[in-house]
Structures are given as C-alpha cells and as structure tokens.
Design goal:
124 residues; UraD-like; 64% helix
C-alpha cells in the first residue's frame, strides 16, 4: 500500500486496504492474528460470561490454531457479549477453509475501522 501513496481520498485508501487484505497468504494471516487481542467483555459482565468466553476462545484456538477475531464496529456495548459468544460458537462449526475466509474478512473490517479512526484522529 505504501508504494501507491499518496491516495487521492479516503475511499481510495480504504479500497487499497481491502485489496491488500484479499491478497494475504496464510502465513500473513497468522502473523496478523499473532498480535491481535481477544475481544474484551464489558466491565460489568458477570463472571459466568468470562468463563463461557474463555472456554469458547480455548475451543476455537484448539480447532483453528489462532485467536478468534471479530469486528464489533457499530455493535452497541450492551450487545457485545452476546454477539461475541454467538459468533464464536457459530464459527466453531466451520471447516478450516471456510473459517480462514471469514477470518480474513474480519481482519479486513478491523483494518478499515482502524484506518478510519486513524484518519479521523489525524484531522483533529
């Protein structure tokens, strides 16, 4: 992406980021996931929720060999726990090939969100 700078506008930058994500190899996805934090629970989540989420994360990592990644952009805070648990349980049923495609798409969405936030912060 850096080799194509400058980008004329935000839409062009985000399109280039999307395109770069589609071209990620399995090794590059693994590298990106190695530094990706787990989705966190709201401060007031009850301890059983922490236990359920920890168990789901462990099952996911055991099956797919990497952390669970999900973009929660636009999800109201009071729905985060339910969304994460629902998605991780649903995605545990995927085969590794299908899950790799979903993971790649979630990384793309996270990158877009982070780029937008960085651009908004730079305009301050």
């Amino acid at each position: 992406m850096a080799g194509h700078r400058p980008y004329p506008d935000t839409a062009s930058l985000l399109a280039a980021a999307d395109e770069a994500t589609y071209d990620l190899s399995a090794e590059e996805i693994a590298e990106a996931l190695a530094s990706e934090p787990l989705p966190s629970l709201p401060e007031d989540a009850y301890s059983a929720a922490h236990t359920a989420l920890n168990a789901a994360h462990a099952a996911y990592e055991a099956k797919f060999g990497h952390v669970f990644v999900i973009c929660l952009d636009g999800v109201p805070e009071h729905e985060v726990l339910d969304r994460v648990l629902e998605d991780i349980r649903s995605r545990l049923a995927n085969d590794p090939h299908d899950e790799q495609a979903i993971t790649r798409d979630q990384l793309r969405l996270l990158a877009r969100e982070r780029l937008k936030n960085a651009l908004e912060g730079a305009r301050l």
